[in-house]
Amino acid sequence: MLIGLVGKPNAGKTTFFNAATAGNAKVADYPFTTIEPNVGVAFVTQECVCREFGVKDNPRNSICIDGIRHIPIKLIDVAGLVPDAWKGRGLGNKFLDDLRQADILIHVVDASGSFDAEGRPLGKPGSWDPLKDIEFLEEEIARWMYQILKRDWHKWTRRVEVERKDFIASLADRVSGLSIKIEHIKEAINNLKLDVDKPSHWSEEDLYNFAKELRRISKPILIVANKIDIPKAQENYEKMLKLGIDVVPASALAEWALVQYTEKGIIKYIRGSDHFEILHPEKLNDRERKLFEKIQEILDKWKGTGVQKALNKAVFDLGKMIAVYPVEDISKLSDKKGNVLPDVFLVKQGTTAREFARLIHSDLAKTFLYAIDARSKKKLSEDYVLKNRDVIKIVAAGARG
Ligand SMILES: Nc1nc2c(ncn2[C@@H]2O[C@H](COP(=O)(O)OP(=O)(O)OP(=O)(O)O)[C@@H](O)[C@H]2O)c(=O)[nH]1
Ligand SMILES: [Mg+2]
Q1: Pick from 66, 277, 316, 388: CA 20 to 30 A from residue 144's CA?
Q2: How far is the CA of 302 from the centre of ligand 1 (A)?
Q3: Does residue 6 line the site of ligand 1, with CB under 6 A?
Q4: What domains are defined for the chain?
Q5: pLDDT digits (tens, 9 = 90+) for 247-298
Q6: Ligand 1 neighbourhood includes 28 CB (under 6 angstroms)
Q7: Which of 380, 356, 385 is nearest to 369 (CA)?
Q8: Is the dihedral of CA 51, 56, 57, 58 positive or negative?
Q9: Nearest atom, ligand 1, residue 30 CA
Q10: Which of 140, 99, 81, 71 is nearest to 3 (CA)?
Q11: Rounded to two decimals, what is the model's pTM?
Q12: Minimum CA distance residue for ligand 1 atom 8
């Protein structure tokens, strides 16, 4: 699972990235600070099943902190996007190509409205309408996809038709580098009622609408109203809500401060929570004490910094993922080595028990017999659809124990 951070220069993408990955990529108040993409590991979080089962776990592929399971995902922070990037303006095409593999995009918006479309400072908050940023970004990404699809479209579709190849499968092959799956293509074609027998007859408009729909389905975008700590940002955030935009308010800067001071051992803060504890007040100077007072105000007002909320919403809601905990020993909830609740996997909603077995190990799917639900101890058939926070054992033919 790869999440791409997108937005215009100076919106706070790298600050968000550093906060989410505890990284140290360069942040500055001038446009195009980031040129080469930063890639790192961030986490999505959920209440771990350990407390419900009353066990002490020892995770291997994830982390459990105070009963909150942290599940790793990959995050990529790219260069700022400016209008007409798809034509190569700014760091345009390079930026977009860095996003090919992303499954979900988080659009970091400067909700304070302090910068123009190109990320140039305008002097004071409220000088720019962030709604414009939301519109233009979607357009840019759709145009970029359209441009890729359009390349040799006529020649290629004619050949598919003449050779009587499966159009959808061939197209999936053609765009596999963009992390677009066959189901995405089918859904987009269905929604737009496009003719799959004569793709060479699609108009320019059909193809553009298809690109737009394919983007919406294969790389959904979550809007983050960043810099919510700046008063003007709240007004703009409320405007977005009124327009029905599903938006997460955030202060990447506050999250970054919390994460940095946690790393130094000066405070204790668990990602996503709305409070922190100062462990070593003597190590803070006056300026830092004031900073943490301000951060506490933000946490109280917005119930957290919003960074973790955004990541969780992106993966669990937009990405339609669930977390499943496989175990080998149903009574101890452990693997063969005795590690309790060792792993958790992020899988698509709708994944069945057999499909899950295949994700763990391809052999396991071939010899799959049934699964067992750790809560009810009941057998689950191969087509059982997994639920979020399921704890299950896969039973396969010839397996030991
Ligand atoms: N007040 C406030 N400032 C922020 C926040 N997030 C980022 N900033 C500031 O915004 C400026 C730009 O931040 P960056 O993270 O470098 O922005 P970027 O989107 O990565 O910019 P480019 O790499 O140039 O595209 C810096 O001065 C940050 O300190 C926030 O939540 N609140
Ligand atoms: Mg940056």
Answers
A1: 316
A2: 19
A3: no
A4: 2-143+220-315 (3.40.50.300), 154-212 (no CATH), 323-396 (3.10.20.30)
A5: 999 999 999 999 999 999 999 999 999 999 999 999 999 999 999 999 999 9
A6: yes
A7: 380
A8: positive
A9: 24
A10: 99
A11: 0.94
A12: 12
